[in-house]
């Protein structure tokens, strides 16, 4: 897997006229307690609080924005592996991060698939599954247990859930650092269908297809796809969702492109008359957002969100559809 910033694309393809996303903008997660989530993502994950309003906050961790809002559910299932969200870390910081998590009362599971990449699963206090991804420079990799597909023991996903003592004293040690966002992996109903959707509609490149798992690079972001029986965004839920940025040149063409490719599109809207956005789902039900944060000349004419004094509300259940692509 590669760093998020590997290859952003921001221009309409001159041959296919397919609009393109420029980059991943944010990942927004559900949480049980917003104040607790803010303390975790700033204090443990080392993020910077960049947006904090009633009921919603955003933290920037290296090169990705993590949004969070209270919701009654929607985090990764008790025994589930998907969805999860991974951060790159170098070998020098891998053991340091484990000690840091231990010191902060966060259960974790170090492991490897191939003795080339050191991995570590852990959860935030709400249950969202996170991962460390270290593909270079870790000298202790030979001592890590292998995963279940490689003949090792099952990963104890249930044991990674915990009640966090966020008022405990922070460990007196050097704080580890991430090098960037690595990938997000989401569940899908049908892997072949998901691959077609993310390549043909989202404009991604298939970079891995092996043993019932695939990875697609979309606008520089790696999206993993794994067939499961559930775990996508809830029918009436707003979180989790994954926001991709489209510049002003691509924003409205991308909305039209999604519609022409059989995606349920409620139409774009605005919060402030300057920025545009629209929610949509992949065929499995994972919730995505197309977002244009600046220079959108048509933004003032878009319907305004209900929370901002307008009448527009997204019908999340109405975004489901049967895709025949």
Overall helicity: 10-25%
Count the helices. How many?
A: 4
- Biggest pleated-sheet summary: 8 strands, mixed
Spatial order of the strands forming the largest sheet: 6-7-8-5-9-12-11-10
The topology string of helices and strands comes to: EHEEEEHEEEEHEEEEHEE
Structural class: alpha+beta
Shape: globular
> How far is the first residue's CA from the last residue's CA?
27 Å
Rg on CA atoms, Å: 20 Å
Work out the oligomeric state of the chains in this entry: single chain
Mean pLDDT: 93
Q: How many runs of DSSP E, i.e. beta strands?
A: 15
Low-confidence stretches: 1-15
- Strand residue content: 25-35%
What do you see in this structure?
The chain is globular, with a radius of gyration of 20 Å. The chain has helices spanning 34-44, 91-103, 191-201, 248-260; strands at 23-31, 48-53, 56-61, 64-70, 84-88, 108-112, 118-123, 129-134, 180-188, 205-210, 213-218, 221-227, 241-245, 276-281, 287-292. The protein is built from 4 helices and 15 strands. Mean pLDDT is 93; it is low at 1-15. The two termini are 27 Å apart. The protein has 325 residues and is α+β, with helices and mostly antiparallel strands. The strands form 2 sheets. An 8-stranded mixed sheet has the order 6-7-8-5-9-12-11-10, with helices on one face. Strands 2-3-4-1-13-15-14 form a 7-stranded mixed sheet. The chain is 15% helix and 29% strand.
Helix/strand layout:
Elements (H helix, E strand, L loop, with lengths): L22 E9 L2 H11 L3 E6 L2 E6 L2 E7 L13 E5 L2 H13 L4 E5 L5 E6 L5 E6 L45 E9 L2 H11 L3 E6 L2 E6 L2 E7 L13 E5 L2 H13 L15 E6 L5 E6 L33
Parallel strand pairs: 1-4, 5-8, 9-12, 13-15
Antiparallel strand pairs: 1-13, 2-3, 3-4, 5-9, 6-7, 7-8, 10-11, 11-12, 14-15
């Amino acid at each position: 897997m590669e760093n998020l910033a590997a290859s952003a694309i921001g221009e309409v393809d001159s041959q296919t006229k397919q609009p393109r996303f420029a980059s991943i903008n944010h990942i927004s997660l559900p949480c049980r307690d917003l104040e607790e989530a803010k303390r975790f993502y700033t204090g443990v994950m080392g993020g910077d609080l960049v947006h904090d309003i009633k009921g919603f906050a955003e933290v920037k961790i290296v090169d990705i924005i993590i949004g969070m809002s209270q919701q009654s559910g929607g985090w990764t299932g008790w025994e589930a592996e998907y969805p999860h969200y991974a951060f790159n870390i170098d070998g020098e910081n891998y053991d340091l991060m484990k000690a840091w998590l231990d010191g902060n009362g966060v259960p974790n599971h170090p492991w490897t698939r191939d003795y080339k990449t050191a991995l570590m699963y852990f959860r935030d206090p709400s249950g969202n599954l996170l991962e460390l991804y270290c593909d270079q420079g870790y000298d202790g990799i030979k001592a890590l247990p292998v995963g279940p597909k490689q003949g090792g023991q099952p990963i104890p996903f249930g044991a990674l859930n915990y009640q966090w003592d966020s008022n405990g004293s922070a460990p007196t040690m050097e704080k580890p650092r991430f090098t960037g966002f690595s990938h997000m992996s989401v569940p899908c109903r049908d892997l072949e269908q998901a691959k077609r959707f993310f390549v043909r509609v989202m404009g991604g490149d298939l970079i891995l297809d092996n043993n019932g798992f695939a990875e697609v690079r979309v606008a520089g972001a790696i999206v993993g796809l794994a067939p499961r029986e559930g775990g996508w965004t809830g029918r009436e839920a707003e979180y989790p969702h994954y926001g991709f940025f489209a510049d002003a040149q691509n924003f409205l063409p991308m909305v039209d492109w999604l519609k022409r490719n059989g995606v349920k599109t409620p139409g774009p809207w605005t919060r402030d008359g300057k920025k545009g956005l629209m929610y949509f789902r992949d065929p499995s039900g994972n919730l995505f957002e197309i977002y244009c944060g600046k220079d959108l000349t048509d933004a003032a004419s878009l319907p305004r969100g209900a929370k901002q004094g307008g009448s527009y509300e997204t019908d999340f259940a109405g975004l489901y559809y049967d895709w025949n692509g």
